[in-house]
Design goal:
133 residues, mainly alpha, Zincin-like, Zincin_1_sf, Metallopeptidase family protein, Zincin_1
């Protein structure tokens, strides 16, 4: 998908790209992704931005919501299922500004947020992203 044709991709396209990114995540990580849901919103709200220390909604392209597996406990109950939220407008802006394929941008964000699910370091997240190519 390039930034040169047609109108901006909608929510369904972002969801499909996110699910395609999940499908490329290798073992042993792939076996532990059940239950993670993907949501697409236009922008992060003010409360979310404040929680992550950002001021402007264009600064956040995605966010993992949930307890990392490294902190999981059988005693934790009543929590929402883990989810990844993609923020459509910031991703579209980055796609337009950089010329990077939209699939690659969404994969980058999904893998980064999956990395938070596993409690990975940035270096480990980069290695995981390389394995999805």
């Amino acid at each position: 998908m390039t930034s040169h044709f047609g109108s901006a991709p909608g929510q369904a396209v972002f969801e499909a790209l996110a699910h395609a990114a999940f499908a490329r995540i290798p073992s042993p990580f792939a076996e532990h992704l059940d239950g993670i849901t993907v949501h697409v919103e236009e922008f992060a709200d003010a409360e979310t931005l404040h929680a992550v220390g950002l001021d402007h909604p264009m600064e956040l392209t995605g966010l993992y919501h949930g307890r990392p597996m490294s902190e999981d406990s059988i005693w934790a109950s009543g929590e929402f299922r883990p989810r990844i939220t993609l923020y459509r407008q910031p991703l579209l802006a980055e796609w337009h500004e950089t010329g990077v394929k939209l699939e690659d941008l969404v994969t980058h964000v999904v893998v980064h947020e999956v990395g938070h699910h596993f409690g990975l370091s940035d270096e480990q997240m980069h290695a995981l992203e390389e394995s999805t190519r």
